[in-house]
Amino acid sequence: MLIATAGLAVETYQKLFTAKTGLRVVAVDSDNPALPIKAHVEAGYLTVDVLDIG
């Protein structure tokens, strides 16, 4: 899971989510999170499940 934000609430959410699901969460702080996602789509290597860009 990729989250485009940062902070204590996200860190807490990440730990709880990983503990309950076993899935690793990767937080990404970006001025424009759409750019790396676009690059992944164009490369055919999409790894994003959920994102918030607004």
UniProtKB/TrEMBL annotation:
<protein>
    <submittedName>
        <fullName>Uncharacterized protein</fullName>
    </submittedName>
</protein>
